From TrEMBL, chain A:
Molecular function per GO: molybdopterin synthase activity
A GO biological process held by the record: Mo-molybdopterin cofactor biosynthetic process
Catalytic activity: 2 [molybdopterin-synthase sulfur-carrier protein]-C-terminal-Gly-aminoethanethioate + cyclic pyranopterin phosphate + H2O = molybdopterin + 2 [molybdopterin-synthase sulfur-carrier protein]-C-terminal Gly-Gly + 2 H(+)
Protein EC: 2.8.1.12
Record PANTHER family: MOLYBDOPTERIN SYNTHASE RELATED (PTHR23404)
Descriptive protein name: Molybdopterin synthase catalytic subunit
Pathway(s) served: Cofactor biosynthesis; molybdopterin biosynthesis
Entry's family note: Belongs to the MoaE family.
UniProt subunit comment: Heterotetramer of 2 MoaD subunits and 2 MoaE subunits. Also stable as homodimer. The enzyme changes between these two forms during catalysis.
InterPro entries associated with the record: MoaE_sf, Mopterin_biosynth_MoaE
Keywords: Molybdenum cofactor biosynthesis, Transferase
From TrEMBL, chain B:
GO MF terms held by the record: nucleotide binding
GO cellular component, one term: molybdopterin adenylyltransferase complex
Species classification: Bacteria, Pseudomonadati, Bacteroidota, Cytophagia, Cytophagales
Coiled-coil boundaries: 20-47
UniProt key word Nucleotide-binding: yes
Keywords (A to Z) from UniProt: Coiled coil, Nucleotide-binding
CDD domains: Ubl_MoaD (cd00754)
Family: Belongs to the MoaD family.
Any Pfam family hit: ThiS
KW Transferase (keyword) present: no
Protein name in UniProt: Molybdopterin synthase sulfur carrier subunit
Length: 136, 80
């Protein structure tokens, strides 16, 4: 299951979708919106996505993970739109026969998602807004 | 003929639109189109990295672009 979601992510539905009778482990990463970044108080976030390419890139990452590790199922769901503090921004769930691969694959998937999937985060502060990572 | 370019994040803000059209020769390279955009909108030069995506794939510098291609300007991504 690979999705860009414009409403709250159902974490349990992600776990259910990852589960498999052949799996002995489901590792779940939940990325949430924190209230500060680099000493600045964050009020909320806005995620913008290039949907068609983001889905394609996430699918490629899932395929690559399945080549690197013995995996049963991969679920990747990322939010777009306005998110408040504490909201779930991203869920990645990976099921594998043995737990080590599920930890490793899940970490690799979130790390690589951050590097290549066309999603942009705009932080809103009390006194302004900023696209992250835009300037050196 | 014109290349249509989808804009996201800070590039949308700099150019002031979600989509622009740029008049150039057909079979322009990705690098040439990027240079043209930076020339037309100098504030793009201040961005940490700027890539073109062509048909939902990151484009190498020498990739030849056609008018029918789906093109997007990709500033540094920050998902997750």
């Amino acid at each position: 299951m690979i999705q860009i979601a414009d409403k709250a992510i159902d974490i349990q539905a992600c776990i259910d979708a990852a589960q498999s009778e052949r799996a002995g482990a489901v590792d779940v990463f939940i990325g949430t919106v924190r209230n500060h970044n680099k000493q600045k108080e964050v009020v909320r976030l806005i995620f913008e996505t290039y949907d068609s390419m983001a889905i394609k890139k996430m699918q490629e990452l899932a395929d690559q993970a399945c080549e690197k590790w013995e995996i049963e199922k991969v679920v990747m769901v990322h939010r777009k739109g306005v998110l408040e503090i504490g909201d779930v921004a991203v869920v990645i769930a990976v099921s594998t026969p043995h737990r080590k691969a599920s930890f490793e694959a899940c970490e690799w998937l979130i790390d690589t998602l951050k590097q290549v999937v066309p999603i942009w985060k705009r932080e809103v502060y009390q006194d302004g807004e900023e696209w992250l990572e835009a300037h050196p | 003929m014109k290349y249509g370019i989808n804009l996201f994040g800070i590039t949308k803000e700099i150019i002031g639109n979600t989509y622009i059209e740029i008049e150039m020769e057909d079979k322009t390279s990705a690098e040439q189109l990027l240079e043209r955009l930076k020339n037309d909108y100098p504030k793009l030069k201040a961005i940490k990295s700027l890539l073109l995506a062509v048909n939902s794939e990151y484009a190498e510098k020498d990739l030849v672009i056609h008018f029918r291609d789906e093109i997007a300007l990709i500033p540094p991504v920050s998902g997750g």
